[in-house]
Amino acid sequence: MVDVKANRYQIKQAEKKLYDIDVAKVNTLIRPDGEKKAYVCLASYYDTLDIANKIEII
């Protein structure tokens, strides 16, 4: 979930700053309850499991 006022560029820069990763694409949607959700596609040279461990999902 991201701030409703955040645009794709701001989300991309925040991901780069917080997790030190390169983002290839950002898709966003605003849910019916008013929250904004962002889907982030990483650059192709990243290993998904390494990133998941880095941001402590796994």
UniProtKB/TrEMBL annotation:
<keyword id="KW-0687">Ribonucleoprotein</keyword>
<dbReference type="GO" id="GO:0003735">
    <property type="term" value="F:structural constituent of ribosome"/>
</dbReference>
<protein>
    <submittedName>
        <fullName>60S ribosomal protein L23a</fullName>
    </submittedName>
</protein>
<keyword id="KW-0689">Ribosomal protein</keyword>
<dbReference type="InterPro" id="IPR012677">
    <property type="entry name" value="Nucleotide-bd_a/b_plait_sf"/>
</dbReference>
<comment type="similarity">
    <text>Belongs to the universal ribosomal protein uL23 family.</text>
</comment>
<dbReference type="GO" id="GO:0044391">
    <property type="term" value="C:ribosomal subunit"/>
</dbReference>
<dbReference type="InterPro" id="IPR012678">
    <property type="entry name" value="Ribosomal_uL23/eL15/eS24_sf"/>
</dbReference>
<dbReference type="GO" id="GO:0006412">
    <property type="term" value="P:translation"/>
</dbReference>
<dbReference type="InterPro" id="IPR013025">
    <property type="entry name" value="Ribosomal_uL23-like"/>
</dbReference>
